[in-house]
């Protein structure tokens, strides 16, 4: 059968990424993570945009080279249309447009959050692809949603955060503890040595399948302020226990809503996606649910959890198969629903 090569480009936040896939298989997946934001403790949009401009040409070049193809072999260019930071998105959109125009091949616009979900359709050895319908919980620095995935491009958001995203809950609590940005992976690492029941934090009371994380952040802030007043070395002396407790609380919140979603929909195929799906605690909890609850779970490989272009390329590939091409006048959208 014919080989379809799709280049994916991702530039929605602070990672400049490019990937090539061929008929659902990944040939290259290159990510340049911007280090510049670490010293500011968060993403600075103007700096992100400038860094994307510096990285995009070498990153695309590297992706093609690693895939062992040239740009003339490509059948389509997929790019992230949104949601994300406007200045960052614009770099990817304009680059993708000019490349597609120059090569005279289709342009494929991708919703970043659909990308996090459809990353599960990247074909790998020993990995079973999900079948429709399935539930997907997208957990990242900007989003927290439970999505009912009826088909590749037919998704219903059945629950979402009313305030902060779960990644923000990790990052902001970590900042209070003096951890470097992004704090999610740091908390994950430290939590492994701590007692998850050391400091109980109360969980938010939010109805239905929605989430709220701003109350948790405030609770952690007050807790730490109080403890540090009593003992100035409280954080250093209890860092692993604090991290384990925060992570345990967040995972309990996520799992409770997932269980509710499974119960309400009757769907026991459950996938996770987005940066926070790299978290070892949520991965373990999901694996455990296979045994205790009889779910079939889909946990992405690490390289497809945080922002990457493999997920954009695979989504573009499925759009290509449907001949769902973007017009050259397509524009970036900072806000874009699934
Ligand atoms: O999907 P992503 O790369 O970017 C967005 O679209 O937001 O997600 C980034 C988020 C950050 O908040 C980061 O702290 C979090 O994912 N994250 C983690 C872990 N690895 C990344 N959170 C908890 N545990 C991890 N191991
Ligand atoms: Zn993302």
Automatic annotation (TrEMBL):
Free-text cofactor note: Binds 1 Fe(2+) ion per subunit.
Molecular functions per Gene Ontology: iron ion binding; peptidase activity; tRNA N(6)-L-threonylcarbamoyladenine synthase activity
Pfam families (alphabetical): TsaD
Chain sites annotated for binding substrate: 138-142, 171, 184, 188, 279
PROSITE patterns: GLYCOPROTEASE (PS01016)
Subcellular location: Cytoplasm
Cofactor(s) required, per the database record: Fe(2+)
Domain Gcp-like: from-to ranges: 25-313
Catalytic activity: L-threonylcarbamoyladenylate + adenosine(37) in tRNA = N(6)-L-threonylcarbamoyladenosine(37) in tRNA + AMP + H(+)
Alphabetized NCBIfam families for the sequence: gcp_kae1, T6A_TsaD_YgjD
Name of this chain's protein: tRNA N6-adenosine threonylcarbamoyltransferase
Organism: Croceibacter atlanticus (strain ATCC BAA-628 / JCM 21780 / CIP 108009 / IAM 15332 / KCTC 12090 / HTCC2559)
Gene that produces this protein: tsaD
């Amino acid at each position: 059968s014919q080989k379809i090569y799709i280049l994916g480009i991702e530039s929605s936040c602070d990672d400049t990424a490019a990937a090539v896939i061929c008929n659902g298989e990944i040939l290259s997946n290159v990510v340049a993570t911007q280090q510049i934001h670490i010293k500011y403790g968060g993403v600075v949009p103007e700096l992100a945009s400038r860094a994307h401009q510096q990285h995009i040409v070498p990153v695309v070049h590297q992706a093609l080279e690693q895939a062992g193809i040239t740009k003339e072999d490509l059948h389509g260019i997929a790019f992230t249309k949104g949601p994300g930071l406007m200045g960052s998105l614009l770099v990817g959109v304009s680059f993708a447009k000019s490349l597609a125009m120059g090569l005279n091949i289709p342009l494929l616009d991708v919703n970043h959050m659909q990308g996090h979900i459809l990353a599960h359709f990247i074909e790998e050895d020993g990995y079973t692809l999900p079948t429709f319908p399935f539930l997907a919980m997208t957990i990242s620095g900007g989003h927290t949603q439970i999505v009912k995935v009826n088909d590749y491009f037919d998704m219903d958001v059945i629950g979402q955060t009313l305030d902060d995203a779960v990644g923000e809950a990790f990052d902001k609590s970590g900042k209070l503890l003096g951890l470097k940005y992004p704090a999610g992976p740091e908390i994950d690492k430290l939590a492994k040595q701590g007692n998850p029941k050391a400091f109980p934090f109360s969980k938010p009371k939010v109805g239905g399948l929605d989430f709220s994380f701003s109350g948790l952040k405030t609770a952690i802030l007050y807790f730490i302020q109080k403890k540090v007043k009593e003992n100035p070395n409280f954080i250093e002396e209890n860092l692993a226990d604090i991290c384990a407790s925060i992570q345990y609380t967040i995972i309990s919140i996520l799992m409770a809503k997932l269980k509710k979603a499974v119960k309400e929909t009757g769907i026991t195929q459950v996938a996770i996606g987005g940066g926070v799906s790299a978290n070892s605690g949520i991965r373990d909890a999901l694996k455990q649910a296979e045994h205790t609850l009889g779910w079939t779970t889909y946990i992405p490989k690490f390289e497809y959890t945080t922002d990457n272009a493999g997920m954009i390329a695979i989504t573009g590939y499925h759009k290509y198969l449907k001949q769902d091409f973007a017009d050259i006048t397509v524009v970036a959208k900072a806000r874009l629903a699934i």
